[in-house]
Specification:
alpha+beta, three-stranded antiparallel sheet, 9 helices, 13% strand, elongated
């Protein structure tokens, strides 16, 4: 059986002559500095954090920069023109956003209050299409063990969550978000206590019963509320 013969020259260098590697090095170095200049022109706002439209800009710059690095038939003038157009469009967009709050909301959206006074703001939470597990994980990373510790939680346009806490003396019973406690949610109440609705976080004192409906959201699963202060 004859082993397949491998053309190592073609395998390593492709169809181009090895000397094209030197050209690739030069192209890559030039595109590297063009990218640096492009990001510098975007300003501090563009490199501090990525919003949706800023992510589009970065992806566009990356696409424009990639091909000229290793495709011989693409000249360097093409990506430079593309970079100029992208940066110009970005600067125009940020200018219009600064001048018009309506345009700013259209491009980046609005921040949303997702927790108010220890309870979920149901409508805002639904609009943002948040998953409980993901959101609870975000809260736990900020040392939150239950919603009663939170006065306000705001989902920023960047996707980050800003949290304003109650003072320790003002912490009230709330929905526990620790997995081992939240997983104990149930419909039947076996003993009188403060219970938190597992859907909206509203806390009610409930006597033993087979089923109880939340007065805020209409759901029927409950978790025993806790009122501990935040660990620091």
């Amino acid at each position: 059986m004859t082993l397949m013969k491998i053309d190592w020259t073609n395998f390593l260098f492709g169809e181009e002559h090895w000397s094209f590697l030197l050209e690739i090095v030069l192209r890559t170095i030039l595109m590297y500095f063009i990218i640096l200049i492009g990001l510098r022109l975007l300003g501090k706002r563009g490199v501090r954090q990525l919003s949706v439209f800023e992510l589009v800009v970065i992806i566009s710059l990356g696409s424009a920069a990639g091909d000229p690095m290793f495709y011989k038939e693409i000249g360097l003038l093409t990506p430079i023109v593309i970079f100029a157009v992208i940066v110009g469009a970005y600067r125009l967009t940020t200018y219009l956003m600064a001048k018009s709050s309506t345009f700013d909301d259209l491009v980046e959206g609005k921040c949303a209050y997702v927790i108010v006074d220890g309870e979920f703001s149901i409508e805002n939470f639904k609009k943002e299409d948040l998953a409980f597990d993901e959101f609870f994980s975000e809260l736990r990373q900020q040392s939150v063990s239950h919603l009663g510790q939170i006065r306000l939680a705001i989902l920023e346009t960047s996707g980050n969550v800003s949290i304003f806490f109650y003072d320790d003396k003002d912490v009230k019973p709330g929905l526990p978000i620790l997995p081992h406690l939240f997983d104990q949610r149930c419909k039947q109440i076996t003993g009188e206590n403060d219970y938190a609705c597992s859907f909206c976080g509203r806390v009610q004192k409930i006597a033993p019963c087979k089923e109880h409906t939340c007065t805020k959201c209409g759901h029927k699963k409950w978790v025993k509320a806790i009122d501990e202060t935040r660990a620091r």
